[in-house]
Structure formats: C-alpha cells, structure tokens
Amino acid sequence: MKKAELMDFDKALELYEPVLGFEVHVELNTKTKMFCGCANEFGQGANTNTCPTCLGLPGGLPQVNRKAIESSIRLGLALGCDIAEASRFARKNYFYPDTAKNFQTSQYDEPIAFNGSLTIELESGRQVTVEIERAHMEDDAGKLTHKGGATGRIQGADYSLVDYNRGGVPLVEIVTQMIEGGEADSPEIGKTYVAAIREIVKALGVSNARMEEGNVRCDANVSLRPRGSNILGTRTETKNVNSLRSVERAVRYEIQRQAALLSAGGTITQETRHWHEDTGRTSAGRPKSDADDYRYFPEPDLVPVAPSREWVEELRATLPEPPAARRKRLQADWGFANLEFQDVVNSDLLDAVEATIAAGASAQAARKWWTGEVARLANVAGVAADSLVQPHQVAALIELVEAGTLTDRLARQVLEGVIAGEGTPLEVVDSRGLAVVSDDGPLIAAIDEALASQPDVLAKIRDGKVQAAGAVIGAVMKAMRGQADAARVRELVLERAGSAE
Amino acid sequence: MTDLIKLSAADLGGLLANGSVSSVEVTRAHLDHIAAVDTDLHAFLHVAADAALATADRVDARRAAGEQLGLLAGVPIAIKDVLATRDMPSTAGSKILEGWIPPYDATVVKRLRDAHLIPLGKTNMDEFAMGSSTEHSAYGPTRNPWDQERIPGGSGGGSAAAVAAFEAPLALGSDTGGSIRQPAAVTGSVGVKPTYGGVSRYGAIALASSLDQVGPVSRTVYDAALLHDVIGGHDPLDSTSLTDPWPSMAAAARAGLADGALTGLRIGVVKELNGEGFQAGVTQRFTETLALLAAAGAEISEVSAPNFEYSVAAYYLILPAEASSNLARFDSVRFGLRENPTDGPVTIERVMAATRDAGFGPEVKRRIILGTYALSTGYYDAYYGSAQKVRTLIQRDFDAAFEKVDLLVSPSAPTTAFKFGEKLADPMAMYLNDITTIPANLAGIPGMSLPMGLAPEDGLPVGLQVMAPAKQDARLYTFGAAVEQLLEAHWGHTLLSRAPALAPVEMFASEEGVI
C-alpha cells in the first residue's frame, strides 16, 4: 500500500469517473443563538455566552430564533428551493463532548428548504448546474481544544477543553445531489460551487461568510466509478475544508488517492477524512457507514415551523440580485476583460469596486487601485482589503490623481496616510504637503541648476540626443522629492536646454 | 392555637393576610413537623430550614410594610426534586446529580418565589420520575403516611406524602404518565396534571418531553386551583407552552361550591378503565361516588375508548425513546457525577460509560436501553412510529367521548397503595399500574385525582380521576370542588382527617448521662 500513494490526475480520469457531493455549513450571523437568547459571538472568554439551554443543563429547553428561520428561508429561496409548508426539527443522537445535549438539534425528513439548484460557471466558461437536495437548519457544536499529545487531536491528548460559546450557533447545512460528469473539472467545480454559496450568503447578508473563521465550512464527498460501470464507488467525506483553494486541492487529492488505491486492487473505506492544509493530504478519520445510527426522531421540545406563504413571498421580495447575474451585469457595465474582472472577483472586491465607481471613480482606476495598491497593503497587514479603506476615499484619491494633483507615487503615500487614519485623501495631501508642484517657477530653477551642473548632458541634448534628458529629469525629480509631474519636467528640460542655447 | 399544619393553604393565606399568624410561625410549624416525622417518612430529600425561615421573615416584613401580597404569600410549599432550584440541590432522585445545585430556577419555581410562597425543600421521587412507587429513588423510598409498609405512589411520592402527612400544605409535582395523580390517589390527597402546555416545563428535568407536565399537589381542590393560578400561563422559554389566556382556576373551584353545580353535568364513565383488574374496594367506592353524583343531578353514562388498551404499550415506547435522548446529557462533562473507569484507558467514551453505569439506577438503564432500541434504524417505524399512531387513535377516542360528555371519570389507580417490593421484581406489573393515568398524558388533556374514600378491605385511600378536554382545566376544578364538597358532606369529615397520626421521632439524652 505504501508504493504509489497518488495516481497521476489525468491517468485517474482515464480509468475512473469522479462523482462528487458537497455539504456546506453556513453559520448565520444572527444576534443570538439558534435556540436560546445567548449572544452569537465568540472571543469574550470561554463559555461566557452560555445558558442552561445551550449548555445542555438538566431542565434547559430550546426556543427557535425567528431571525434564523428568516435567514434560512431567504437562503433556501436564493438557492431556488421550495420552502416547506411545515418543517420540523429532529434530534440527531450521538455522544460527543462538544455537543452539550449529546444530540444535535437538526432537521431530518422535514427540512425547511429542498429541491433547489445552482448554476455555476467555470473559468473555461463551462456552466455546471448543481442540484441542491436540501438546506436544513441545525445548531453548531462547541469548540474542543485538545491539550498535550503530539497531534492536537483527541487521541493521545492529556486533557481537552471545551468552549460552548459556539454551541447552539445557527447553521444552515446545504446538501447537494450527486454531481456527475464533472470529469477533469471536478476540483474546480468544488471550488466554484463553494465560492458561489459563499457569494450568495454574503449577498443575502445572512452570514459573515468568512471561510477562514469557519463561517462557511465544506465537507467534500468524493467517490470514483470505474469507466464503463454504472455502480457507484465507495465515497469518502473530507470534513471541514475551509478555503476555496483547499476544496479544489482536497477533491483532486482524493481522486488521485482513491484511483491509486483502487487500481492497486485495494478498496475504499467509507469514512470521514481530515484535510491537512500544510501537507495537502487527507488522512483517515472515523469510519462512517450508511448504518451510522443517529436515532433521529422529531424534537418533542419544539413545535413544527410552519412559515406562512405570505411571509415566504415577502422574504422572496427581499432577495438581492443573484451574484452570478450581478457579475455579468457589472462586467458588461465596466467593460472589463475577463482576466481583469476575475481579478476583482477573486480578490473579493466586487462590492468595493462597485462602491468606488458609484462614488465617481472610473471603472479602470477603481479596479487598478483596489486590486493593486490597496490589496498589496492589505496583504502586508494580513487583513481583508475592503476593511482597510472606504470606497469613497479610494474614489477621492483617484479624483486627485486624475485632476493631476497627485502622481501615482504620491497617491500611494496619500493612501498610506488615509489608512493610518490621518483623514481624507485631501487632508493627507494638505498635512503631508504631498501635492504635485504645478508652478513652473521652482521647476525651472531646479532644471537650470541641473543642466548647469551637467554640461555634458546639456551638450548631448543640444546635439539632438533627447534621451539624454533622462539624467536631468531624474535629478530634478529627486530635487523636488517626487512632487513634480515627470512629463511636465521633461517638456521644461527640453525647453530650457533649447533656450539656453 | 389552631394546629397550623392542619390548615389548608387557602386558610393559611387568609390568616397571614389578616395578620393572625406570621409566615415565620407557619413555616416553623411545618419545619418542626418535618423534623419530627420525616426521618421515618422520607418525603424530603432536602429541607432548606434556614432559607425557608429567612424567606418567611422577608415576606412578613413586606406585609408589615403594608404591601398587598398574593393569596398564597407566606404559605410554605414543597418542591419535587425534578425541578431546578438555584438554592437547593436538584437531583431528580438520581445519584448522577447528587449535590448538583442548578445555576437557575425552573419557571414554576420562579413564579412561586414571585408569589412569595416559601420553599421548604425538595421532595423524593423515583429516579428521573421513572416509577410508580418511589422505590426507584436512588436515596431510598418514601413511606405512605397511611401505612408505612406501603408505597406513597410515584414518581411523585415525596410531594404527595409531604402534603398528606401535613409536612406542607402544597407541593409541586410533575406528571408524565400519572406521577401526580397516582400518588395523590394512594395518599388521599389532590393532584392535577394540567393540559400539556398549560404550565411551563422550563427547568423541569425532562423525562419524556411530549408527555411531561408540572402541576399542583395539595389536600383540597381549591388549594390546587390557587397553586395552578400561580404556576400556570405562557412561558416564552418553553416552546410547547400555550399562549392561550387562562381563566382563574380558583374562581372555577369556587363556582363548584354553588348549589346545583353538578346539575345536568354530563359525566362519562370510561368503560375500559373500570371493572376487571381493579381492586374490589376501588370499584365499590367508584360506584358509590357515581351514585352520589347522579343523586346530585349529574348525568352519568358509559363511554368507550377502544384504543386505551394499547396505551400502556404505546407509552412504554414513546417515553423510553424520548428519555433515552433526554438523559444523554448526563455524561460527566459539564455537571454532576464523574466516574473514571477502574481499569483500562481513561478516554472520554469510557468516562461517560463509567459515569452512566455508576450514576443511573436499574430502572433508568432499562428505559434508556428500551428507548435506544426503539429509535434504532429499522425499528423506528415498528416501534416509535406505531406508538405515535396509537397516540393519535387515543386522542380520537377522547375527542369522540368529549362530544358526548363534559368530563370523563375513572378510578385514579387500579388498586390502593401496594406494599414495598410487591411489584419491584416485575416491571410489567408496575407499568400496568399506570393504565388509568397514561391516556391523559398521551392525549395532552388535563386530569385530576381527588379522594373518594377508603377501600373497605384495607382502609386505604382511593382516588377518583377526572379528565376534561384540552385547555378545559377550569372544568376539572369546578367539578372537583363540587365532588369534594359532596363527598365530605356525605362522610362528615375530610378523608385525610382519618389518616393515622405519625409518631414523632423522639430524641432522648443518653441514659448514661450527658456532659
């Protein structure tokens, strides 16, 4: 089994057809938890946002958060789902210490939303329609931290700590039907599908949608079917893949791993697998079978959720433009090339660019500044670009550049000032004294001085070798500490060289 | 001076309101009596003497300051140990919760405190309310004040015995399949299971969520009504709590005392809850009571509820299924007992297993296993699914019956109090004891038990069960108060006045002298 751990991807696809399925968990950004009045936020110290209900204390009882229902219905509608006239919670029974009640309050045979679909577009332009089986509501588990031991996992740990602040946070789990025919695009389908979900929940405003914080988590199911066979292979479920790139890598890895195993005569174990970001591999988790018995039964502490059709229609009217349609519209409006537009989308800067354009900037300038300097500074700071600076400030900055008040170089300094909280771009220009010197007087003085100190250059220019002017321009720009328009300096250098004749 | 402990809650409330007695005096009288008799009786798992007196003192001070307080302000009450109390251990009769003090009050407890009642302590019960005798309490059984060799009923034997033995005028119980009504019947007291959703379950340690209901335990129907008014009504913390406005149960009980309250009332006798399998003296008292009712103008008829014969079977699938899930949280991680395995590795699964093995008694384990099995894939439809269908059929039986009659009656239990150990080895015999009370829980309708005499063969109390349509709890109180008045007039005394006096536990100084 040690020999070829992975099969070449193309070879794997020659022999097998990948079949995919995704379960995406979306953490809703409600103010309070799913079934109690505790705040839906972390980082206030372990187990501070807890109560008898979310701690699973004897006697605690759940109450359904109406806002969570509303968000779930809106999400279901955005995924093209039907909304159940009567939907029920069910208990999923299993013992694990992060689950305070030792059952998860979830939904089983009566989910709030079902029968949806989502069409995604791959980079090649290929459109893939992913059928959504269901979107159901449930509560999140607490967070376990395993202390001692080498792996940070429960096995071998000396002890474990559990923080129930996350316990009871509302989740919507979106389950796809089997996705067949993905072929070599399978890894990209995974990535694009999860990106599309994330985009939708963000557009709806129902989740903070930050994958790195676990607001959107993906479990990827992969199985391989031998070419020519109509029997499905055994699947694995790679849990908690928490970045778009990881989804793509994990799907690709599982295809290659399973292909190697199958072609060597091995069998796939039906199991959950852990994704390791650092090594790019998956490793075996716990065995999982269809016979896993969660002893589901209707939650007797809660009454069925029966959203009125009027309410559902009211909520449907609140849906934003679907992200994919919006992207098409914006790209056409802005006239961006595919790559330019992708760059904006991939950097998660669609909203920021749109707002910047709305604030008066040209589309190209807005794109250039956000995906360029702002993104670079955000990357250095390790934060999201749109958290660094406001669109209207970027628009103001662009306006100053286009008016000739700032060169790009000066504008970058102004941007740093704005980010540092020194005020609006105009205020930074004033306080740092960064405006372009547009008065020719000081420029001419500097040029004359430069020409005088470099007579050989002056001679060359006079001989018609205008490219020699570069040395003088450089000296002038340096003398002006960059606060001059280089084009104007060039004009003046040539003029002064001629007139000095 | 009157014997304060013999007074009803209503009478005590009256004396407290007019300043004839203080709450401290009333509370101390009850605490003294508990100290005297409870060593034998064991109705209480915890007595909060100091806290009770301090609370009573505060209530007296409020009254002294001229505050107008409720009808039960200053009246002591005992609380079944299934209810969460932030200042007293709440064990549900289980070792797994020994010493556990919840960080919160159950809604009903909070309402008691808000109405200025005086919590005396926590009463004994079958572990997690699983039983009909209190013999399944991890802390030993409660004795029946009528005969200390006999069970006080269960699971709420502690609350019923406390009230019947004059340790408290009022108590709270919980009723999943008869845990309020059957103990009331065998101790000669009054107990009411309200409509499902009528009283908050928040803070009641769950046995079977779809069946559990908290309710009043008392010596008179009117007292139960007064307590019902304190604890009832919508609670946003319990999603199954009804939002309906409720009439005053106390007013309903007072209406039952009017002349002619029984005239024309249509009373249905449930054919399936009478006759075969019922103790002769129980049937006799039931028949006599029906005759008295008829003489008072009630219209008695027999109604059939053909699906009741499946009720015990359905109940013992639904209850264990829900209980197996409700009791999963007792795992040593957040509260309660923690037991490490005696050998082998200490893993979380093994600690949970060792804790549950050590902390749960045999009846609890039996029901967890039954319920786990009933919910298993492949068995769910046959067991839990079928049981839910039976439940619907039983609800239809009730619907059909209530089209013909205003109220249904039956004996509250097939027998009078049985002896300790009599049914302990035979769970089926114990389960069948609940045949009379279970249908009301399955249908969610209200039920009451009140005394209807002593069985001639053993001189022990017999209870009359009354059932009303869902949300018609008031009808129970009107009828209950009328029947109580009728029977007591017929007897010339209250039933509990015939209970044997309990010998106080005397404390002697050593015969060898004391220093």
TrEMBL record, chain A:
EC code: 6.3.5.-
Family annotation (SUPFAM superfamilies): GatB/YqeY motif (SSF89095), Glutamine synthetase/guanido kinase (SSF55931)
One of the GO biological process terms: translation
Gene3D superfamilies noted in UniProt: 1.10.10.410
Domain (Asn/Gln amidotransferase): residue spans on this chain: 351-497
Keywords: ATP-binding, Ligase, Nucleotide-binding, Protein biosynthesis, Transferase
An example molecular function term from Gene Ontology annotations: transferase activity
The keyword Protein biosynthesis appears for this protein: yes
UniProt entry tagged with the keyword ATP-binding: yes
Catalysed reaction, written as an equation: L-glutamyl-tRNA(Gln) + L-glutamine + ATP + H2O = L-glutaminyl-tRNA(Gln) + L-glutamate + ADP + phosphate + H(+); L-aspartyl-tRNA(Asn) + L-glutamine + ATP + H2O = L-asparaginyl-tRNA(Asn) + L-glutamate + ADP + phosphate + 2 H(+)
InterPro entries reported for this sequence: Asn/Gln-tRNA_amidoTrfase_suB/E (IPR017959), Asn/Gln-tRNA_Trfase_suB/E_cat (IPR006075), Asn/Gln_amidotransferase (IPR018027), Asn/Gln_tRNA_amidoTrase-B-like (IPR003789), GatB (IPR004413), GatB_Yqey_C_2 (IPR023168), Gln_synth/guanido_kin_cat_dom (IPR014746)
Function, in words: Allows the formation of correctly charged Asn-tRNA(Asn) or Gln-tRNA(Gln) through the transamidation of misacylated Asp-tRNA(Asn) or Glu-tRNA(Gln) in organisms which lack either or both of asparaginyl-tRNA or glutaminyl-tRNA synthetases. The reaction takes place in the presence of glutamine and ATP through an activated phospho-Asp-tRNA(Asn) or phospho-Glu-tRNA(Gln).
Subunit-structure text: Heterotrimer of A, B and C subunits.
NCBIfam families noted in UniProt: gatB, PRK05477.1-2, PRK05477.1-3, PRK05477.1-4
HAMAP family xrefs: GatB (MF_00121)
UniProt family annotation: Belongs to the GatB/GatE family. GatB subfamily.
UniProt-listed PANTHER family: GLUTAMYL-TRNA GLN AMIDOTRANSFERASE SUBUNIT B MITOCHONDRIAL AND PROKARYOTIC PET112-RELATED (PTHR11659), GLUTAMYL-TRNA(GLN) AMIDOTRANSFERASE SUBUNIT B, MITOCHONDRIAL (PTHR11659:SF0)
Name listed for the protein in its UniProt record: Aspartyl/glutamyl-tRNA(Asn/Gln) amidotransferase subunit B
Source species taxonomy: Bacteria, Bacillati, Actinomycetota, Actinomycetes, Micrococcales
From TrEMBL, chain B:
Protein name, UniProt field: Glutamyl-tRNA(Gln) amidotransferase subunit A
Protein species of origin: Cryobacterium psychrotolerans
Reactions listed under catalytic activity: L-glutamyl-tRNA(Gln) + L-glutamine + ATP + H2O = L-glutaminyl-tRNA(Gln) + L-glutamate + ADP + phosphate + H(+)
Taxonomic placement: Bacteria, Bacillati, Actinomycetota, Actinomycetes, Micrococcales
Broad enzyme group: ligase
Entry's Gene Ontology BP terms: translation
Gene Ontology CC: glutamyl-tRNA(Gln) amidotransferase complex
Residues annotated as domain Amidase: 25-476
Keyword ATP-binding included in the entry's annotation: yes
EC number(s) on file: 6.3.5.7
Subunit structure: Heterotrimer of A, B and C subunits.
Coiled coil stretches, renumbered: none
Family stated for the protein in its record: Belongs to the amidase family. GatA subfamily.
InterPro entries listed in its UniProt record: Amidase, Amidase_CS, Amidase_dom, AS_sf, GatA
Function field: Allows the formation of correctly charged Gln-tRNA(Gln) through the transamidation of misacylated Glu-tRNA(Gln) in organisms which lack glutaminyl-tRNA synthetase. The reaction takes place in the presence of glutamine and ATP through an activated gamma-phospho-Glu-tRNA(Gln).
Annotated TM spans: none
Catalytic site: 80 (charge relay system), 155 (charge relay system), 179 (acyl-ester intermediate)
One MF annotation (Gene Ontology) recorded for this entry: ATP binding
Keywords noted in UniProt: ATP-binding, Ligase, Nucleotide-binding, Protein biosynthesis, Transferase
Pfam family, one: Amidase
